[in-house]
Amino acid sequence: MKPFLLLATRAEDFAADAEYRSFLRYGGLAEGELRRIRLESGPMPELELADYSGIFLGGSPFNSSDPEESKSDVQVRVEHELGGLLDRVVPEDFPFFGACYGVGTLGRHQGAVVDTTYAEPIGAVEVTLTDDGAVDPLLAGLPPSFAAYVGHKEACAALPPSAVLLASSATCPVQMFRVGQNVYATQFHPELDVEALVGRISTYRHAGYFPPEQADEYMARARATTVDQPEAILRAFVARYARS
Predict the structure, then answer these.
(1) What's the rounded Cα separation, in Å, for the pair 53 and 35?
(2) What span, in angstroms and rounded, lies between the C-alpha atoms of 199 and 185?
(3) Rounded to whole angstroms, how far apart are CA atoms 214 and 121?
(4) Hey, where are the domains in the chain?
(5) Which residues does 21 contact at the CB level (< 8 Å), separation at least 6?
(6) Which residues, at least 6 apart from 31, have a Cβ–Cβ distance to it below 8 Å?
(7) Topology at the third CATH level for domain 4-241
(8) What is the per-residue pLDDT across 155-202, written as a single tens digit (0 to 9) for each?
(9) What's the CA gap between 169 and 188, in Å, rounded?
(10) Cα–Cα dist 80/109, whole Å
(11) What's the CA gap between 158 and 94, in Å, rounded?
(12) Tens-digit pLDDT profile for residues 2-59
């Protein structure tokens, strides 16, 4: 099987490695089947799409809607590189799945309005499939509504004209969309289980997602929830696009 590729941007080793393990676990992949490039540590190398079965883009501390003058040199470089990659991925309809940061990155590339209107605090929300989502191959077998973990400062306030809305929630109308037939983005995190979420709460307690003194409260809320459906989306992506 040609490997999948994970593009990552988390500078903290603990968070970056936990994210990689999560994509391995819920994608049903062995280490040799998921290559990782940490974009925050250096420029993206030349990529031949034909070398891969598909591409995952993990979550990020970056917010695409931040004022340009506030972005670090690393963030500006990463956004430029991802934009160049999507210039190839979208026209080729190459299998791509962006989790959380994927909505801002793919959304802006396709002309969406991305801002802070529908930010959601860290925790579980009820996600509901649209009619298009109910018949999408990545979502086959999922219930019409399910719990998913979120935690983001920005979101799509208006869907890009090229996209099909697949899932929504009461607090964030764009939870998942598709461009073409094979390019996906979710606002929620299908790769997260409760312990991974607790780890992120600890890692990012001073990153502005919530008052840092409330970290233990957020961890307790996470442990009190059951989220076990979104992981099936990653397995479906791998099963659909794995190729020799």
Answers:
(1) 11
(2) 23
(3) 12
(4) 4-241
(5) none
(6) 24
(7) Rossmann fold (3.40.50)
(8) 999 999 999 999 999 999 999 999 999 999 999 999 998 888 888 888
(9) 10
(10) 10
(11) 24
(12) 999 999 999 999 899 999 999 999 999 999 999 999 999 999 999 999 999 999 999 9
